[in-house]
Write a structure and sequence with these properties.
The structure holds two protein chains of two kinds. Chain A contains 16 helices and two strands. By secondary structure, chain A is mainly alpha-helical. Chain B has an eight-stranded parallel β-sheet with strand order 1-2-3-4-5-6-7-8, sandwiched between helices. Chain B is an alpha/beta fold. Classes of the chains: A mainly alpha, B alpha/beta. Bound molecules: zinc ion (ZN). The site of zinc ion (ZN) has 6 residues of chain B, from loops.
Chain lengths: 280, 292
């Protein structure tokens, strides 16, 4: 539990605020009804991009690329006032679009527990994709929740399948490849087949994630990915091939390298081949 | 022509309506909390309804490039219902602090009962306490008397008239509101309330000062495009462009901007709360993969 006396603002937050906004935030941290204060954050602190890139904060790793001053203020307010799990869930459920976003972004830095499980369950069943992204992306919350047993393997698989379904980049879920398992690979491959049958786009990171837990059909998918017409798919397949280091895949990667028109994909293919040389 | 639609119940409409509104120039809509076509029997359904118009409905609007605002209140019909009235009053203060809530409404009179008056007054007090404008629904039956009664109540409380919008007006009520200094809304509704041609005649006679027009589209036979359709009629009748712009944009924006929660400049930006794509130009994440 964050100690209210030691709650630290994210770097750069206070510099980005006007004197009025800082004054309001100080008062809100000290006193007042949280459900009434919380919706005021955007209009009091603004929605200004915080910047700051990848940070460590309260045991979490997060990327501040999507964070606004109101998100940073919300985290500081929650770390200072330490609402109970029920109060935190209530802030989300009775919150407007902005409040929900602020709660979900802060969630990565708040103590793992029943509120984490409840709120991840809520976004899993939400069609508001930016809310799903605010909870699952740009931090290592998912892997930490899984490691701590707040989520079980089935929960984590369903969340990653939804990530694929709504087409968010795997790179935004930190350490997600550690969550790979053969059941998830089967689910992702089935989703890909279903999309192909319908003539629809397949999640571009499929070939990367399944490579971390190969199952029946994985090698063939990655082999096909090396010749895919879309650069992003070939990058994912090259990274997948690097991870699996199967001799057939490496031969196909070498064969592709000479014909590959994209410099970014060539870099990935070359890296895959070098990695294979290093492993006996 | 930029349009602010100041009274529409998008909760009851489909995405085609959003698409048509956007094509017709509607940049922002105001959704007043209202009756849902049948009575609710417990407060939980109000809570979920309020959460939906603040959340999912706003998100839906944003998908079509439309800013979504709302007003929160206990409508006069259900003010008569003891299963819900007091409980809704209890939850309102929290909802009136929400960022996209720019007024108390629809409140007002419908059957003009004593109970309706009591909850109207209680909600006007909330409006004063939260410094919000009020959107007042006036009765469809015995309208003139209901209008006069609403105004008497407002004057008794010394409610600042520039923060009052009396809605569902007509040729008779415009005479009254011009004198007291409040805003007046006209709901252009096929077959009933007020049609486009009558609205043109009103504008020609009285001008557009403190007037707004809306479709009041809901779950009934109604047309969400009534504001753009009325604009066409006004143009054909020779009403000046600047007067039309004042009627469909400056007036409603000015009225709801009195909250400080609606910024006219913000309305010129596309709506959204996930700015990652715009923010992320310099993010270290771009081109780098933290999973590796
Ligand atoms: Zn209405």
């Amino acid at each position: 539990m964050a100690d209210s006396n030691r709650a630290e603002p994210l770097p750069g937050l206070l510099d980005g605020l006007t004197a009025d906004a800082r004054g309001w935030l100080d008062r809100a941290r000290a006193d007042g009804d949280l459900p009434v204060l919380f919706p005021q954050l955007p209009r009091r602190l603004g929605r200004i991009a915080m910047g700051g890139g990848v940070q460590r904060h309260s045991g979490a790793t997060l990327d501040l690329g999507a964070w606004r001053t109101c998100d940073g203020g919300a985290l500081l307010l929650l770390e200072t006032r330490t609402p109970s799990a029920d109060e935190l869930v209530d802030l989300y459920l009775r919150g407007d679009l902005e409040e929900r976003t602020m709660v979900l972004r802060a969630l990565a830095c708040l103590p793992l527990g029943s509120a984490t499980a409840t709120l991840l369950g809520e976004v899993q069943r939400s069609n508001t994709v930016p809310h799903f992204a605010a909870a699952v992306c740009d931090s290592d919350l998912l892997i930490r929740a899984r490691d701590a047993g707040v989520l079980d393997a089935d929960d984590a698989n369903r969340m990653l399948l939804k990530l694929a379904f709504v087409d968010l980049p795997l790179a935004r879920v930190f350490d997600a490849t550690r969550l790979a398992n053969t059941e998830l690979s089967r689910m992702l491959q089935d989703l890909a087949s279903e999309r192909e049958a319908a003539g629809r786009r397949v999640w571009r990171d499929t070939n990367l994630l399944i490579a971390h837990a190969p199952t029946a059909g994985t090698l063939a998918r990655i082999a096909g990915g090396l010749e895919h017409g879309d650069d992003a798919h070939r990058i994912a397949a090259a990274r997948g091939a690097a991870h699996i280091a199967d001799p057939v895949l490496l031969r196909l990667a070498r064969e592709r390298l000479d014909r590959e028109p994209s410099a970014a994909v060539r870099t990935e293919l070359a890296a895959a081949l070098r990695a294979a040389e290093r492993t006996p | 022509m930029k349009i602010f639609e100041p009274h529409i119940h998008m909760f009851s409409r489909i995405t085609d309506d959003y698409e048509k509104l956007a094509l017709a120039g509607v940049r922002a809509v105001l959704e007043p909390a209202f009756w849902l076509g049948q009575n609710r029997t417990h407060v939980g359904t109000f809570i979920d309804y309020f959460d939906t118009i603040l959340g999912w409905e706003r998100f839906r609007a944003q998908q079509f490039g439309i800013h979504h605002y709302c007003t929160m209140g206990l409508n006069p019909r259900e003010a008569n219902d003891d299963r819900v009235n007091d409980a809704v009053m209890e939850i309102l203060p929290r909802y009136l602090e929400k960022d996209s809530v720019v007024g108390v409404g629809e409140i007002g009179l419908d059957d003009q009962t004593e109970k309706e008056e009591r909850y109207l007054i209680a909600q006007l007090e909330l409006g004063l306490r939260h410094e919000l404008p009020v959107l007042v629904h006036t009765p469809h039956r015995d309208k003139k008397r209901g209008f006069a009664r609403c105004i008497a109540i407002l004057q008794d409380m010394a409610y600042p008239m520039e923060r009052v919008l009396l809605d569902h007006g007509n040729e008779e009520t415009i005479q009254i509101t011009r004198e007291v200094g409040c805003y007046q809304g006209f709901s252009i509704y096929p077959f009933t309330k007020m049609d486009e041609n009558r609205m043109v005649a009103i504008v020609q006679e009285f001008g557009v000062e403190r007037m707004v027009i809306n479709s009041a589209a809901d779950w009934g036979v109604s047309d969400p495009l009534m504001v753009p359709k009325t604009i066409v009629k006004l143009r054909q009748a020779g009403v000046a462009e600047h007067a039309i712009q004042q009627l469909v944009w400056d007036n409603p924006v000015g009225f709801f901007a009195q909250t400080g929660r609606l910024d006219a400049a913000e309305l010129s930006q596309p709506p959204g709360f996930d700015r990652r794509e715009t923010f992320d130009g310099n993010s270290v994440l771009r081109g780098q993969d933290p999973t590796r």
